[in-house]
Amino acid sequence: MMLLGAENLTVRIGGRAIIDNVALSVGHGELVGLIGPNGAGKTTLLKACLGLIRAAGDVQLMDRPLARMTPLERARAVAYLPQDHEIAWAVAVRHIVGLGRQPWRDCSAFGDYAGGQIVARAMARMGVEGLAERRANTLSGGERARVLIARALAQATPLLIADEPVAGLDPAHQIALMEVFASLLNEGRSVVCSLHDLGLAARWCTRLVVLSQGCVVADGPPSAVLRPEILRRVYGVEAFFGHADGGPVVMATGLSKK
Ligand SMILES: Nc1ncnc2c1ncn2[C@@H]1O[C@H](COP(=O)(O)OP(=O)(O)OP(=O)(O)O)[C@@H](O)[C@H]1O
């Protein structure tokens, strides 16, 4: 079963194809990094896969047409972390994370017990247990991001779609987050996340999809995708490629000569 299957996906805004005939499929146990320059269409593609914007083409979630799923069915299939990490409400962090349980409210045979455990686990995974009673609108940017990721984890969906989840996180929290994502794969769950950090993409993702001007220009394992000619063509950068303990290292070192 595919968790996500998108075909012939096209998004037109103001007469321009922002997403141009894209195919994207995600199976179980994949950590897919969506990379590409600013304005390539990453956010638009993720939103189209979630049914959040109008798109032509076919999207299936767990082998079912997205268009025919109810909002509740969608919420049980996929969790979404938007790029904007705003929390306007002055409510306790544990309530924000608890919102992730909303799609499952009526189906626990044990009342709130199982849901409470899942919320606690999600907060522990993201290291925000100590913030449980804090008002969410008093958090730092990085804390807010981690709380919202915990909320998405509490939704306990097979698929998590995260738009730039590491933005605003310090290096330790970036790595911790990628470790959390990787740990979901053992449970058969999958993550699709847009990333700007090629080093994280190289080291943690099982697969990279490169978007450029609304088109997928590469799709494969990081070692096949993060090649000098692709980075030069797509980003206009030269990069350092190396190896360190535990995996590959990629870092943009300069702009390519025009
Ligand atoms: N509602 C809209 N109206 C006009 N243009 C739009 C709209 N939404 C997106 N675009 C344009 O579509 C293109 C793709 O935007 P998108 O946000 O998907 O890119 P992105 O790859 O996520 O970029 P970034 O890395 O900067 O976040 C951009 O040129 C953007 O200006």
UniProtKB/TrEMBL annotation:
PANTHER family: HEMIN IMPORT ATP-BINDING PROTEIN HMUV. It holds the Pfam family ABC_tran. InterPro entries: AAA+_ATPase, ABC_transporter-like_ATP-bd, ABC_transporter-like_CS, P-loop_NTPase. SMART domains: AAA (SM00382). SUPFAM superfamilies: P-loop containing nucleoside triphosphate hydrolases. Belongs to the ABC transporter superfamily. This is ABC transporter ATP-binding protein. Residues 4-238 form the ABC transporter domain. Keywords: ATP-binding, Nucleotide-binding, Translocase, Transport.
